[in-house]
## 1
Amino acid sequence: MFCNPSSCAPDRPPVLRPEALHGAVPAPALHFASLYCRKLSIFFIGFCFCCLLAGCNKDATDPLIQKAQNEWVEGRNHRAVELFKEVLKNNPSGPPAEEALFRLGEISHFSLGNSSQAIMYFQELLQLNRNGPFAHEAQKYIAEIVEFTFKDYEQAIIEYQNLINRFDTEEEKGDHQYRIASIYFKMQNYEQALAEWEVLLDEYPGSRRAEESQYKVIEILFTLQRFAEVREHYRDFMEKYPTSKFKGEVDFILAS
């Protein structure tokens, strides 16, 4: 994971994504604590993997990047930052610069608690190469930090839309469309949240978020007192998902 992705590292494991249940979003502290623990686990696994590969190919990793990663593993975060900055000084562009900027963003956010600086590093990486191996994850970090740390919901919507437009696979498009709808729900803009969940159902019907999105549509229609549409969507929902985990909630809404 921490080698030059084009030469020795496997695809980076996906970042833990926020889960929204019944419109609720995990508390930011819990969300990023969980994400931090997973990132550390991924880091150690990837680091060991690259160390093994480095034994077979000594040119696989920039030695300075390797040294910076060692410092980070040992918890010497400020020293790791200094070394990654030295990588940038020696390599203003190209794969080493992209990895250095990405790691600086991760260290700033997860280890130093400086999320504003982290976003600056991720944005600089995207300016260098929007098609590089770290670009997709950098944009995901930006969207999540803006939503969960800064709670700048309007900007978060823009960042998730950037993911959908520029980076995402079809499955991820559904996930991030769900995030957009959930943000409007948190903002209590129920009409727009309804529209965004309907976009998900229309454009990404195979998404793993489709079942929950259809439930959310019913929930919002009930909130908006559009009861005739609630019954119509209920019939469609039960036809598609007769054993849904949301059946109890949907039955309760209909009974109300």
## 2
Amino acid sequence: MNILAKTLTSAIPTLFLILCGCASSGGEGESYTDSDTPGKQARRGEFPGCKPSTETAAFLLEGRLPKYPRRALRHGESGFADIRFSISETGDVENTEILRATSEEFASNVKEAVGSWKFQPATNEDRPVTVVCAKRNSFSADD
């Protein structure tokens, strides 16, 4: 199995869960797809690690996964990008900021993908609230 196929089949679900810190939605079984790469799917899920404490966590509705940079994949390079972003009261991603990354390629691909995400917002006292999330997206050429 070539490295691209191996990476797409084994690493993508893990990368999504690492980035999101999310749990599967449990029974719905719905997913979203990166239309640029067939088969790149991940289950929708909650973002329980966002601040402040909320009655319900923000819930990922749609978006696409970060792409593994082609040059890095070709050269077997692993890396990561840490990102902080807000999920607004309307469920939009705002204020994206790369905190740390091993390369600009990883950083820009993560920032672009996270910017495409749409959420059902977190709530507190039955009202939508803005939350701030910080997540790591790891890319491993060994998986």
## 3
Amino acid sequence: MRDRMNVGTVGRFWIGLLGVFLLGLLPTLGACNSEPLILIDLPPWPGTGTQLRMRTQLQGMAGRDQTFTQMERRIALYLPAGAEGTLRVDFSVYDSTGCEISVASLTEPVPGGLPKAAQRTVTFELPPPAACRIPLPMPLDLNAVVALNPTTVFAAGSFGSVFRCAGSPLSCTLTPVGNTYSLNAMFRLNDTSVLVAGDNGTIADCSSVGCALSNHQVVSNLNSIWASDPTNIFAVGTGGYMVRCSGVSGGCTQIATGTTNNLLKVHGLGPSQVYVAGAGNVVLSCQGTAPMTCTTRGLSVTSDLTSIFATDVNNQWVVGSRQTILRCTGTTCMPQTVNVATDLKALFVPDTSNLWAVGTGGAMVRCMGTCPPITSGTTADLLSVWGSDLNNVFAVGTNGVMVRCEGTTCAPIPSMTTNQLTSVHGTDKDHVFAVGKGGVFLRYQP
């Protein structure tokens, strides 16, 4: 009989050939045992940790996962008498949102001279990068996300739903816009609020106090929204529709675009200089205030143009189907040579001379004078891209794929979902968020 060992709160486990069996949590540990015992001392958990998960393997045979609260600082593992092989024990610490924030492991040869009672200590380390899921009060499809800062993030989606997630860890509340139409796009208006656009002409301004819905109601479904300031809001949508609003509570005026093609993206430099991309080869340059006049750029390509970004009056980047990348200078748009067969869906422009674009089949392109393809590590369609700078870029898409690029080295990271991811946005390289179908809301864990 061993002497009783006062070890505080101890988890006592049997490592059998068929699994790991919980025998109890004992304030003291003492018994007559012939089987070897390993006492594992745990260091203090990271400050935000709320749960510890332990996984065991004996000679490659997995045991049953066990979870603990933050009370556990020492765990007792019993091995079967005569056990041989290699024992591996893996620990993961999770925060209240389910993100893995720290890991530790132990490998022990058995018997390998293991005494009847051995004591070991593990050290917690940072886990590999991953994307952790943030719980939402309702599992609604999400189409857009905007981060105002690391602790304030908005997401919008189906049935007029806007979620505001705030705090550390993030806690999300539903803030409906006041109708049940699908919300398709968002724009960061300032440090405290976002603009939302959606079906049936929906335009709303959302902040910590809720969402203010514009009385602007039309048949057109809005695909994109942009503003130079709170009193100059522009939105574009189906049927060539474009509108300018003098604030959410102000009046809205339709802008003649000269096309009935669906308009997919709007971006600008100021209240009198706005650019639009659309289906069927449409690029518009809209100037002036009352009225604003839009002219169509002459193009030598035939593509549905899905996104546009302006850095100055002489530099606008456009991407679209059939591997189209255009660089517009003044009144001329020049196609860029792209050596990858893909439909490009989205772009990120860190500065005047550089562009990232993503598209179908896992395509990624980086333009720096030339536009060579970048290996993304996936064949899933990439639908959205965002970066904190030229060398830290994130893309998301179908099958729950999330890709991170450091320089020109890109690789998928675990996302904990196979749902389609529709939008990605962040505040810096360590605070990045993605949303998707089925209420998926992810936080990148570096």
